[in-house]
Design a protein that fits this description.
It contains 21 helices and no strands. It is mostly helical. Among the domains are: about 70 residues, Serine Threonine Protein Phosphatase 5, Tetratricopeptide repeat; about 80 residues.
Length: about 450
């Protein structure tokens, strides 16, 4: 089972969806504003109305949101309204970010930030730096993401923008979590959550609740993870926010998959997949597609698992998301290992490890090290048992009940080396389940 590594990749999301009542309210609001739009004078009020329309479409269709944001940008430029120009650039960038077109997102965010800087608009500058930090976070360029987050946080604190402080603090917590700094991450999350609750910022609460839930999931504390993930789902359904609902459903699926409740896991994964497909969010479509593959892998339906993994690998390559490519390469390698094609498994796992080290993903580096060690061990003996795994993973000198065939000592040395490096890295990340995941693969 390789599903244990997948949850880290759902930490970062934008929000949206819901119950039928929320959807009807949303449609009525859109209909009302679209009726007024053609009658509106070509002035700044029309740009503001377009922004309101965009905000509603963010909850259901990013492509349409981009279309109206482009109209707003053209009108703001015609009026020479600098704030409107900058704001519409942000709106377009946000739409592209959620369609996983990160190069376009960066281009529009940068244009908007430059305009706000020229105007000396500190709120706009803080938002722009945070936006760019988010995109680089998506791209796993953590150094650059932190650089922009620090700029945003400094400005938000200077102007007393509590909502901005909470958002950026939560995002910095996410970076800490990615690098295994769990204590620091949780401190950021609870600080951000307290501010969001005080300010009544429901989308912010949902994002942070999801991140806290992910920490508990990584620690195998499933009851607490469920509590926080159901809060995310509830917020999405109450606000008519599709991304939020999709994220909550996907996170719940991860918990149920970890508890071996495949029926509930698939139910929530397919619900999440449908919503992300409606939103056109390729990165998240790839994520959930891969998670479905994990479940079929656990059910030993390797043909279906590979089919889903290859679909999500193609999407990740399309959007250039290295962390997703790495995770999927590792999952494909794991299937080949389960099919006893260990040489091919090692090829995929080594490529996944190379990418994880390149992007400094310490958690998944620990996982890949242990799976590569497992594959090398399988080349030494066809029947590695639980006692063998525990002995190697805990650094035991003796390997009980294993006879090493002549000429395979070098592979055994590689197996021990990779497994012990994986154990050390896993302990550094405070994630003991990483060590156990290898043992489960052998059962």
């Amino acid at each position: 089972m390789k599903g244990i590594i997948k949850f880290l990749l759902i930490l970062f999301a934008v929000f949206e969806c819901g119950d039928m009542y929320a959807q009807k309210k949303q449609q009525a609001l859109i209909d009302s504003m679209l009726t007024v739009l053609p009658k509106q004078k070509e002035d700044t009020n029309k740009v503001k109305l377009l922004k309101e329309i965009i905000s509603v479409y963010y909850k259901s269709d990013f492509a349409i949101a981009i279309k109206y944001a482009t109209q707003g940008l053209q009108l703001a430029e015609k009026l020479n309204w600098k704030k409107g120009v900058a704001t519409m650039n942000y709106c377009i960038g946000f739409g592209y970010q959620n369609e996983s077109d990160f190069s376009q997102a960066i281009a529009y965010y940068a244009k908007g930030l430059k305009t706000f800087e020229e105007a000396g608009d500190k709120q706009g500058m803080a938002d722009g730096n945070a936006n760019l930090g988010n995109v680089y976070n998506n791209l796993n360029d953590d150094a650059r993401a932190l650089e922009y987050y620090d700029k945003a946080l400094k400005t938000d604190e200077e102007i007393g923008n509590k909502k901005g402080i909470a958002s950026v603090t939560g995002n910095i917590g996410h970076l800490n979590q990615k690098h295994g700094k769990i204590t620091e991450a949780m401190a950021c999350y609870f600080k951000a959550l307290a501010i969001d609750e005080e300010e009544g910022n429901k989308p912010g609460e949902a994002l942070i609740n999801g991140n806290i839930g992910n920490v508990y999931l990584g620690q195998c504390n499933y009851p607490k993870a469920l509590v926080y993930f159901y809060k995310v789902l509830k917020t999405g359904e109450e606000t008519g926010d599709k991304s939020c609902t999709a994220r909550g459903a996907s996170c719940l699926a991860n918990v149920y998959e970890s508890e071996n409740d495949d029926r509930k896991a698939l139910e929530y994964d397919f619900k999440s997949l449908k919503l992300y497909e409606e939103l056109g969010n390729k990165s998240k479509i790839a994520l959930v597609t891969g998670n479905i593959g994990v479940i079929y892998e656990d059910q030993k339906d390797y043909h279906k698992a590979l089919d889903y993994y290859l679909k999500d690998l193609a999407l990740y390559k399309e959007v250039g998301e290295k962390s997703g490519i790495s995770r999927t390469m590792g999952n494909i390698g794991n299937v080949y290992m389960l099919q006893k094609n260990n040489e091919l498994a090692i090829q995929y796992e080594l490529e996944a490890l190379r990418i994880d080290e390149e992007i400094n993903d310490r958690y998944n580096t620990a996982v890949e090290l242990q799976f590569i060690g497992t594959a090398y061990l399988a080349l030494v003996t066809d029947t590695p048992d639980r006692a063998t795994g525990i002995g190697i993973a805990n650094g035991a000198n003796a390997l009980p009940r294993v006879v090493i065939p002549a000429g395979k000592a070098a592979r055994l040395d590689k197996a021990i080396d990779y497994l012990q490096k994986g154990l050390v890295t896993g302990k550094e990340m405070h994630t003991p389940n990483v060590c156990r995941s290898v043992i489960k693969t052998w059962q």
